[in-house]
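Following up on my earlier thread - several people asked me to post the actual chain instead of describing it. Fair enough. Here it is, all 430 residues.
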Amino acid sequence: MSDRRKWTVAVAVVLVASATAACGGGEAGAPTLNWYINPDNGGQKELAAKCSAASNGAFRISTSVLPNDATSQREQLVRRLAAKDASIDLMSLDPPFIPEFAEAGFLRAFSDDEARELTAGALSGPVESGTWDGKLMGAPFWANTQLLWFRKSVAQAAGINPARDPVTWSQIIDLASAAGKTVEVQGNLYEGYMVLISALVSSAGGKILENPEAGKNVRPAIDSDAGRKAAEVIQKLGRSKAADPALSTTDEEAGRAAFQGARGGFMVNWAYIYGAAQEAVVAGTLDQAVVDDIGWARYPRVDAAMPSRPPLGGINLGIGAFGKHKDEALQAVRCITSLESQTQYMLKSKNPSARAAVYDNAEVRKVFPMADDLRASLDAGAPRPRTPYYTDVSTAVQRSFHPPASVDPNRAPAKAGKLIVDVLKDKVLL
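Reply from S.P.:
Thanks for posting it. Predicted structure:
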């Protein structure tokens, strides 16, 4: 462990030692399982109540909400787990952080039999993202992918149908620019921007790391033709009339708001945006005509001759390595990730399921008319680099490609590759 990481862990221990001590002591009666969840619209809390009742008094699940962004979620959990916080029984984990948590000994690995049970019927992407070093460390809960969302009126006026004929980034940027519309992406300096860069590199046939499992000895692969093509897309958008004026600070919600506005044309975003738009209509803040004008298609291509590799996201469930109730936590994971629970959660949260069969449910297909597109994208998607040092890798790439309008395709990929190496070798601090 580097001096820098030793220092980080030491600080984390000091910060949460008193909180951990307060969590000690025995418990009378059925134990309470603490489930740290990512923010949603109440779907995970509903599952906690459902699975508590289904346990017939064996346990009760209490939820604690983590910060909004994935990076802050990781930081809060790392601080607690570095101090061996026994109060963390269950965690909703962003998949890129699973290798780091597994390598640090923060997660209870599922046995081979448990893994077969928990992954039966699950899509391959969520299973892969929850596995590290041959062991399932995070049970597939819900998956996610991005689609190309477009205003039907804009596409029709441009003479294209992205739902039928694949489109390229260059194509939609040119069309949107000519029509005075925007192409919305996540361009802020945060994890959402890494999602965009990673998907562009993968869609161009490349990857960011050559051997991500090698830890600090990884070989960056982003300084390649694929890396330069990805940078070209970002540069073209950033300097075009199709760029959101606030592109360098735009996140998912800002992009959704702009896409639903008068200049909305195209957008890449997660599946939740369709349900969110419908809820806005019910709330009286969005006209139904806007929802009726929203179409969807596969993620845009970088190369016209090469199918795109949509980004993968979602949440996997991990069991804390230091919890006192691991058997009960396993029972809770079984309940939370069951077909019934995942169907309930997809309908409530508007987030896609990790189980393939959920997409065949009649009610799900009514709420998600793009169910087949989501399932196909999840099957064809590409994960972000899977490395225990993901946070450092992600930050290095983001900084090298930001702000979008200033990206130089001839320099950014090489800069990212060098910064990754320098950071992992403790030559540079982020």
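The CA atoms of residues 127 and 270 lie 19 Å apart. That should answer part of your original question.
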